[in-house]
Amino acid sequence: MAWAFVIVLLIAAALAAAVWYQHQTFQQTQADLASRVQGSVSAANQALEQAQQAQSALQEQSRQIAALDAALRESREQAASLEQAFQTLTDSGSDLVLINDVDHLVTIAQQQLQLGGNVANAIISLETAQAQLARANRPMLASLQETINGDLDRLRAATTIDIAMLSSQLDELGVLISTAPLLVPDDAAPEPVLSPPPGSSRAANNRAADAADGLSPDAPWWEQGLASARDWGSSAWHAVREDLGQFITVRRVDDPTALLMSPDQATRFRETLRLRVMTAQLALMMHQPEIWSSETDALVKAVETRYDNKSEQVRRALKIARQAADTDIDVQLPTVDNSLRAIEALREAKAGQAQQSTDPASEGNAGQAPAAPQAPDSPATSVEPEAPAEPEAPAAPEAPEPPGAASDAPAQG
């Protein structure tokens, strides 16, 4: 019995040890599982937080993309409107710009003809306008180009005067008038122009040489002395006569008062003539033929009557004055009125086309305005068309639920 009791005790002890060991093992396993579940829960929470952050970032990006899309649509609309405006400018507005440029050039040509009579500058302006029209190659401006060509042909065939040459000649005449000698010496030309008697000294020398040649070298001494005395007396007489002839000068003067001018009067006389030359130049520039004729005639008369014609300067001044007096500056130049009228007609035509293009648009807007209101007594039957909804931004995909979140509740229970 004792042995059986011992065996039972041993068996009970073994069973108790096995139960204790299994209990310990179970508790350790349960602790491991709890720690693993807690780690999974924390990882799931962290993943959920990251997913929420990613979703908020995605939503923010979606809003930014929508704003960028709206800005892009607005930019496209502005670009379309600008393109339409540019197309309008290049199609119809460029014609007006070209017409304005041609009008400016033609107006310059008209001013050159009317104010300065400068045909060369007017031709240059019209040729520039013609070149612009040729480069544009607009069929509707062909009539204007033909009109400008006609005005150019008339200007090229016009008879003109060389204003630059006449002005330079008048400048030279002013210088000659200031320095040429008068009939009476003055401060500008103090030395009179003297012309020796024709052949006086040369004739005396020739006679002395002839007498010396006619005397024979074998002639007696008294003949040689008599010939020498005769030659000496003849030379002395001619020398005295030439010297005395410089004190008395006989000349023909049409205006007796020309010899009575004092040096101060001569200076004022030269100044008056220079003023007349300047007045003639102004008359030439301003195309005043009456003033030109009166001033040039006065200059010719003054040079002929008050200046010494023996001087080369006076003869040159008289030649220039007579050429200026014989030049007629009353030349009728052609105008460019035809081109100006053609430009005005084109402007009126463009204005009429613009008015016709705006009238149908205004009529269409006026016809569509009364169709908007409806009868107030049937509000239920009025169906307004819904505006098409704008495409919404794609919704951000929801973050997948972590696997540990589903088992959170059971684990905690």
Topology:
Blueprint: H1 2-116, H2 119-136, H3 142-156, H4 163-179, H5 200-214, H6 221-245, H7 263-286, H8 289-306, H9 312-326, H10 337-368, H11 403-406, H12 408-412
Helix pairs in contact: 1-2, 1-10, 2-3, 3-10, 4-7, 4-9, 5-6, 7-8, 8-9
Question: How would you describe what is shown here?
Answer:
- By secondary structure, this protein is mainly alpha-helical.
- Among the domains are: 104-159 and 333-358; 162-201 and 254-330, no CATH class.
- Helix content is 73%, strand content 0%.
- The protein contains twelve helices and no strands.
- It is elongated and about 225 Å long.
- 14% of the residues are buried.
- Residues 196-204 and 366-413 have low confidence and may be disordered.
Give the total of beta strands.
0
Q: What is the end-to-end distance?
A: 51 Å
The percentage of residues in β strands lies in: under 5%
What are the segments in which pLDDT stays under 50 over at least 5 consecutive residues?
A: 196-204, 366-413
What number is the mean pLDDT? Answer: 76
Estimated radius of gyration? 61 Å
Give the SSE order as H and E letters. Answer: HHHHHHHHHHHH
Given helix and strand content, the structural type is mainly alpha
Basic shape: elongated
As a percent range, the share of helical residues equals over 70%
Largest sheet report: none
Number of helices: 12
